[in-house]
Amino acid sequence: MKAKRKQLVGKVVSNKMSKTIVVEIEDLIMHSLYKKSVKWTKKIKSHDERNECSIGDLVRVEETRPLSKDKHYRLVEIIEKAK
Question: What pTM value is reported for the model?
């Protein structure tokens, strides 16, 4: 049985590399001591086989085997194209 892979939703911030996009993941987390919401952001590199993403697109990415030194996600779908 295959393990369930982690899926994340984020915004494309760069598509300058060939077949690679940089996706910014945003989340609100609760601060452990002060109990206040803190915005948490992380940039990940994702594989885009057909170079179809543009900057500002909302995309869903999925965890996969390491494809390069720091590329461990692949594009599943484009949820919303940038205007």
Answer: 0.88
